Amino acid sequence: MEWQRYAEQMALLARDLVAQDSVQATLEAISASAVKLVEGCDAAGILTVSKGRAVTLAVCGDLVEDSDRLQGEFGEGPCFDAARRVGGQRLFRIADMTRPQPSWPRFSQAARDLGIGSMTGVLLYTDEQDFGALNLYSRRPGAFGQDIEAAGWLLASHAAVALATARTVDQLEHALETRHTIGEAMGILMERHQLSEDEAFGVLRRISQDHNLKLRDVARRVRAEFPDPA
Predict the structure, then answer these.
(1) In the predicted model, what is the mean pLDDT of the chain?
(2) How confident is the model at residue 6 (pLDDT cuts 50, 70, 90)?
(3) Does residue 230 surpass a pLDDT of 50?
(4) Helix (H) or strand (E) holding 40
(5) Whose CA is closest to 16, among 4, 7, 25, 24?
(6) How many CB atoms lie within 10 A of CB 92?
(7) Helix (H) or strand (E) holding 226
(8) Which of 156, 134, 158 is CA-nearest to residue 48?
(9) What is the pLDDT of residues 176-194, one digit of tens each?
(10) What is the mean pLDDT of residues 192-218?
(11) Measured between alpha carbons, how far is 168 from 23 in angstroms, rounded to an integer?
């Protein structure tokens, strides 16, 4: 691998990922970039495990969804283990998937039937958050050599930072939207029922508690019931 060229591509990737406008767009861009940048990679995806269930977050190319589904059904597989941090492993590389894999006997057989020749994956994480595992697939055995470990870490590190940034921005935008919605609902109650600001907020909070609804959902219902006449 030409490391200077790869480093330049990583710099471009970092700018591209930060420019994405949502968490999902960032996830999809990471998968697409892996296929584009890693030699021999035919498909890539991001898998997470929620409550013991495999969840595919992003896909680029064939093989990924079937592989994720089978690992979820069997409860075994390298991507499944990486996403759960089984044994503390943060990176795996299977040079030849056509050979039996004692750690994942059922999945390895199914993977051969799918036409997977080799696989590698790396955990996407920062100090504060785990995002799942970025998994790379090739139809050819031996596609990923030793240098994929360093390349995978570089790619995953850029991806994890971009994901953390995207998630923070998404949360901030969501918080601002929620605050705006609640403010509008309070204004409606204050105008129609001659309430003070504290009284209007108290009404929203009481409905939220009595009906086990989120405050923003109560606010949205108030807005829907009394739309802006303009």
Answers:
(1) 80
(2) low
(3) no
(4) none
(5) 25
(6) 21
(7) none
(8) 134
(9) 677 778 888 888 888 888 8
(10) 84
(11) 9
Instruction: Report how far residue 41's alpha carbon sits from residue 138's, in angstroms, rounded to the nearest whole number.
Output: 5
Q: Output the DSSP codes for 80-142.
A: HHHHHTGGG--EEEES-TTS--TTSHHHHHHHHHHT--EEEEEEEE-SS-EEEEEEEEESSTT
Classify residue 148 as exposed, middle or buried by CB count within 10 Å of its CB (0-12, 13-18, 19+).
buried
Supply the pTM of this predicted model. Answer: 0.66
In three-state secondary structure terms, 153 is: helix
Which contiguous run of DSSP H or E holds residue 76?
none
Cβ proximity of 133 and 97 under 8 Å? no
DSSP class of residue 21?
A: S
CA distance 61 to 42: 7
* Residue 155, pLDDT above cutoff 50: yes
The winner for highest mean pLDDT among 11-25, 174-188, 204-218 is 204-218
CB 117 within 8 Å of CB 101: no
Report residue 19 CA to chain centroid gap: 16
The pair of structure tokens assigned to 15 is: 């700018």
Distance CA 226, CA 205 (A): 18
